[in-house]
Specification:
Layout lengths: L1 E4 L4 H10 L3 E4 L9 H10 L4 E4 L13 H19 L1 E7 L22 H16 L2 E7 L2 E2 L6 H11 L2 E5 L3 E2 L2 E2 H12 L7 E5 L6 E2 H12 L4 E5 L19 H7 L6 H13 L3
Bound molecules: NADP nicotinamide-adenine-dinucleotide phosphate (NAP).
The site of NADP nicotinamide-adenine-dinucleotide phosphate has 26 residues, from α1, α3 and β4.
């Protein structure tokens, strides 16, 4: 039996669809991962083959003014789950990198987060690797789903409201459909040996900018909104973001024999799912 924490988020909801009754799904009201007494009591009564930690403080800009809260969820919460759960898959982020790499980031590349969110997520990775018996970190990027709030839904809403929209073209990365990440995590679960402590990168295939991503969202959603490419300087945000955060997925593909769909394919399936109202 598996435990999915943060089960009401984008990835948690996609995992429900894939794992079904093979897992227990804990949202924040059922298990607050930052509450040590609660976490300790929870695991004293139950044992799981793996904890899949999808709980996170993901409001990247808000975190800049709320560092303590971000640290509690992204570092302390992850650490408590690792200490009490012992076997854990911890989901992390491309924002642990500074964007200066001349090529897609490999797992062993030096991290240099540019934001509170990135720093707390990196601290969570380190805590999990130090505390658990078996720890797998899966870094992903630009996550979206038909569940919850995300860039795809924001673009669809703004595109329907406005005739034109400026979107940054100087931040490059890879979108990831949370349903594809959920399928990848599920495939990994049966093939993680006891004692493994590794980091893996997973996103959809391909490379794009937020601008090109927005254009594809409009086209696939049948929304006629003119998307203009703008520079990040024209759209200042509270948190700094890496200008390049493409993840190299060679390691996860080889180790787990995964076939990774292209980001345009993932987006198509997500938009169709949204149209069906699922
Ligand atoms: N979204 C992205 O673009 C992106 C990119 C790269 C990596 N990631 C990583 O991917 C993972 C999944 O992200 P996601 O997009 O699915 O996140 P999400 O939709 O924001 O879901 C996170 C969930 O964690 C819950 N949570 C917050 N604090 C908690 C606590 N103390 N105890 C238990 N649950 C708590 C949230 O509940 P509330 O909403 O009620 O607070 C929410 O349901 C995260 O590790 C994230 O850092 C995300």
């Amino acid at each position: 039996m598996f435990l999915v924490t943060g089960a009401d988020g984008q990835l948690g909801r996609e995992l429900r669809l894939v794992l079904g009754d093979r897992a227990v799904y804990a949202d924040k009201t059922y298990l607050d991962i930052t509450d040590e007494a609660q976490v300790s009591a929870f695991f004293a009564e139950r044992k799981f083959d793996f904890v899949i930690n999808c709980a996170a403080y993901t409001a990247v800009d808000k975190a800049e003014d709320d560092a303590e809260a971000a640290d509690r969820v992204n570092r302390l919460g992850a650490e408590l789950l690792a200490r009490h759960g012992r076997r854990i898959i911890q989901v992390s982020t491309d924002y642990v990198f500074d964007g200066e790499s001349p090529r897609p980031y490999r797992e062993e590349d030096e991290t240099r987060p540019m934001s509170v969110y990135g720093r707390t997520k990196r601290a969570g990775e380190e805590a999990v690797l130090a505390q658990a018996d078996t720890a797998v970190i899966v870094r992903t990027s630009w996550l979206y789903s038909s569940f919850g709030g995300n860039f795809v839904k924001t673009m669809q809403r703004l595109g329907r409201e406005r005739g034109s929209l400026g979107v940054v073209f100087d931040q490059v990365g890879t979108p990831t459909y949370a349903a594809d990440l959920a399928a990848a995590v599920t495939a990994m679960l049966s093939d993680i040996p006891a004692g493994m402590k590794e980091i893996f990168h997973y996103s959809n295939e391909g490379v794009t900018s937020w601008y090109d991503f927005a254009c594809a969202i409009m086209e696939m959603s049948g929304i006629s909104c003119a998307v203009r490419p703008i520079e990040s300087a024209e759209y200042p945000t509270r948190a700094a973001r890496p200008s390049f955060s493409v993840l190299n997925k060679a390691k996860i593909k080889k180790r787990f024999g995964l076939a990774v769909p292209h980001w345009t394919d993932g987006l198509k399936r997500c938009v169709k799912t949204m149209e069906r109202g699922e």
